[in-house]
Amino acid sequence: MRDDPSVVALVVRARAGDKDAWDEIVERYASLVWSICKAFRLSRADADDVSQTVWLSLVEQLPRLRQPAALPGWLATATRRECLRNAHQSERQQRLSRQAEADALVSAGSPELDRELLDAERDAALVAGFRQLGERCRTLLAMLMRQPPASYSDIGEALGMPVGAIGPTRARCLAKLRQVPVVAALIRSERENQGEGEWHGHAVVE
Questions:
Q1: Are 180 and 149 in contact (CB under 8 A)?
Q2: Which CATH number covers residue 17?
Q3: Which domain holds residue 84?
Q4: By the 8 A CB rule, do 86 and 42 touch?
Q5: Concatenated DSSP letters of 167-204
Q6: Between these two residues, 169 and 2, which has the higher pLDDT value?
Q7: Of 3, 4, 153, 196, which has the highest C-beta tally within 10 A?
Q8: Collapsing DSSP states into helix, strand and coil, what is residue 145?
Q9: Same domain assignment for residues 117 and 55
C-alpha cells in the first residue's frame, strides 16, 4: 500500500495545485474517513465536522507529507484523532449538562448557574449559525479560530486567496454570521441584557 504509484501520483499532482487530483483524493478516501466516524458512532453533524477538519488538515499538511504513498494511513490516523477529540468533547458536554441539571435542583436561580446556562445557549446558537455559512467562510473562520490560529500565508494558500484579502473576507464572513437569524436573536438578547453597547458575546463574531 505504501508503494502504490497511483497514490504517489495523486499527491504529487495535488501538491502542484491540480484540482482534479485533489477531488480524486477526496472521492477515493471519503469512504475511509466516514467509515472511521461510523465506527466511533458519531452523529451525522459530528461526522461532518470531523470530516471537514480532516480534509482541511490535509490541505495544510500535504506539502509536508514525507511519504506520499502513506496518505491513506495519514488520513486514518488523523480521522481517529479527531473522532477521539470529538468524543471527549461530547462526553465533557454531557457531564456539564448533567451537573448543571443537578445544580439547578439544589440552587435554582444561582447567578453562576444562570451564567453557565446562558453561555451554553450562546455557544449552541453560534455553532448553529456557523453551520449555515458557506464552505469558504466556514473554512476561513475555522482556520482563524484554531489555537494557535493558522498564519495568513497558510490560509491564503489553502483558499487560493491573496493575503491582503483575508481581513476583508473575514469581516464579510462575520457580518454574514451576525445576520443568521439564530445569531441575530442572540445578539439582540445580549444587548438587551448589557445595554446598547457593543456585543462581546464570543470572539468569533467580534
A1: no
A2: 1.10.1740.10
A3: 1-105
A4: yes
A5: HHHHHHHHHHHHHSHHHHHHHHHHHHHH-SS---S-GG
A6: 169
A7: 4
A8: helix
A9: no
